[in-house]
Amino acid sequence: MTFIAMLAAAAFAQSAAAEAETLAELDAKLFEAGFETCELDVLEDLIAEDFEFYHDVDGQVADNRDEFIAVIAGNCADWRNGKRPASRRGLDAMETYPMQGYGALQVGAHSFYEKPEGEAERRTGHAKFSHLWKREDGEWRLTRVLSYDHAAAD
């Protein structure tokens, strides 16, 4: 391998690692805003207008950003009104793959936790996910979500 090719490969590896770190931070921000803080404006900034969300149990949850944010807003209202316990998502594993000319694909597994009022937090389930992120004008936006292999906690 020539020296220039080795430099190019090293630069690509550093770039891919930096993108993976950035997307991991955005992923954490996304779930915190949707599950814990109900910051709908944060979700709006992270999600593309043509967003689509598919769920193995619920089918197509949303076919655009506004529809998805409405679903989350309903969940947040239920939480604030005591109709559902506080919840959070814990990341179990994640890998990121560059998608040349588009963005990146995140795949991984996560667990879900609830904390009913006056009780200890408990793990309620786990699932796998695939997130397709698009990079435009230096900004990352989530465009597609596949959420699958949901199961109750052991």
Ends apart, CA distance between termini: 49 Å
> What share of the residues does DSSP label as strand, in percent?
35-45%
Q: What number of structural domains do the residues give?
A: 1
- Assign the CATH topology: Nuclear Transport Factor 2, Chain: A
Radius of gyration: 17 Å
Describe this structure in words.
The chain has about 150 residues and is of the alpha+beta class. The protein has a single domain, classed as Nuclear Transport Factor 2, Chain: A. The chain has three helices and six strands; from the N terminus they run ααββαββββ. The protein has helices at about 5-35, 40-45, 65-80, and strands at about 45-55, 60, 85-100, 105-115, 120-135, 140-150. A six-stranded mixed sheet has the order 2-1-6-5-4-3. Helix 1 packs antiparallel against helix 2 (about 40-45). The longest helix has about 35 residues, at about 5-35. The termini are far apart. Residues about 5-15 have low confidence and may be disordered.
